[in-house]
Model the fold of this input.
Amino acid sequence: MAAVLTARLTNPSSGKNSVYFRILNNDSTGQLTYLLADLDAAEAVLIDPHGQDVQLLLALLAERELHLRWVLRTHQHDALQPGELGLMAHLGAPLVQGDTLAALQLADGAVLPFGNELIRVLATPGHTTSCLSFGWRDRLFCGGLLTVAACPHQAAPVAPQALWDSVTGRLFSMADETLLFSGHEQHARAVSTVQEQRRTHPLFASLTRDEFLAQMATLSERQQPISSL
Done:
């Protein structure tokens, strides 16, 4: 795993450069993990950590003397669950994900604090039946919603109808400038905007709902990643 972006952001309530944001890319899988931290409060959040990276993530937290407040996962796959859950426990923070195995079950619209920052929880099923997205400031961490068929563990979305509704009804109704961070790197990119995806996504911007569902019905046979990220 290698870091691809590190940034300090100004906390608008304090005027201090107190927020740390880091993107971590697993070179072998293209999977992305996000570290968010309020440096003044020394509290952090991990979004979509993976079990094989737990020791590295613990070292990054220790390096900056950060207390991990939440472990947030946009989605999970049944075949990986037993081992992943055991490794996530080593991170020592409450686990939030969409299924019943999570340490904390949250309703759509719930808010999670860390330091002086807030994370919004959105139910966005489709890639799996229990997918969540996490909103923070001007950005949304949306897992596998837009990188259709890019997931190495799943050839096609589990719930195509729900996926269409989550993307076109929820994501695309957000402000144009909202930054969208994926769970899987595509074309060496991790981030896009709502406006870009609404205009250019090869599926959600150009197909009708019925056309999309018909294409998803044959996607598992083609197994070709479709994404504009």
User: Anything to note?
Assistant: The chain has a mean pLDDT of 84. Helices lie at 54-63, 81-89, 160-170, 194-200, 209-222. DSSP finds five helices and twelve strands in the chain. Residues 31 and 42 are 26 Å apart (CA to CA).
